[in-house]
Amino acid sequence: MRSLVEDLRRVGAIRSAAWAEAFASVPRHIFVPEWYGQEADNRGITVWRRHDAGDRDAWQAAVYSDQTLVTALDPDTAERVDERAWTGVPTSSSTLPSLMAQMLEDLGVEDGHRVLEVGTGTGYNAALLCARLGDRLVHSVDVSPALVEAARGRLASAEYRPHLTAGDGQQGFPGHAPFDRTIATCSVPRIPVAWIEQTRPGGTILADVSMGIEGGLVRLTVDEERRALGHFTTTTGRFMAARSDAHAYPRPGRAPYAPQAGSRSASVTATDIRAHYPLRLLLAFHLPGAELVYHVDDETGAMSLQLQRRDGTWARAPIDDEHTTTVTYGGSADLWRRAEAAWQWWNDHGRPAQDRFGYAREADGHHYAWHLPDGHRWPLTP
Asked: Repressor: present as a keyword of the record (predicted)?
């Protein structure tokens, strides 16, 4: 454990003595008795291979390294391919320790603070909060009853007994508010009203807001008018989406792709978009509700970066073209034009980093982002 703490301090993830002591006192291996490593089979299909204490040295080396470990798969998509491997979609993980440390530091807890954690998962983050604040001040919720009960047992074995419950974390922890701090280890399309209502005025919410093309961590303060206002943090990291079902994610409906309508040269390339996280965040502001995916041509195998909407509109640019690009599109030609407008804006304003953008969730449910230096605003409702 001490070597992990030293690693986290060296990279600047742990900045305070209090969190260094918490990480040093909580044994991560108790909370990750097994995990799934990503591989590709001989057909190139992703499979998840289970690892546990049967190979103790490799298991402990992984547990005490700075990596995210997948701990559960969606049973609706999981299919066993051999004795220890499955296909499927991950539904729970033990987060990258450096990301956890940075978020806990960013949360700004103080002695006596009551904390709500959304996304109990393995229970490791709840244990860290208990080590820092004490059991009675920590409240954690997860959509999966099985995960909550497993976490309860692991926490008890490490002598921690926080308040745990199973339920939709987007509804918070009813009956136990108010909280001084709310931290979520799942992503949401906008900050849920329950989190704002259950966080006291002046309190902090730290969460991953997913806006389609990109998303990021926001640190927000709740005010007396029940608004949550703040900014994207210098800490970057993404989480699995929050869900209301204990096992699986809903599958959003999408119209079939529109027929190809044309092609043209463009000023922003796939390489530009892939290389710059703040640019992708800005694209999400310009194109709320759109998605950014990889597209593989069925005939040639060529890979492109594709913007798309649920109405079937799309625009794609080849990944291997670093300096100039030809964009192909179906439906409206507007998608890539708006990406070019975002690219132009970002360059004209000195390529601001993500912490130069604010985020707000109003009491009426509307949410928006803005450029902190000049106040330029982007509504985020599709």
From this structure: no
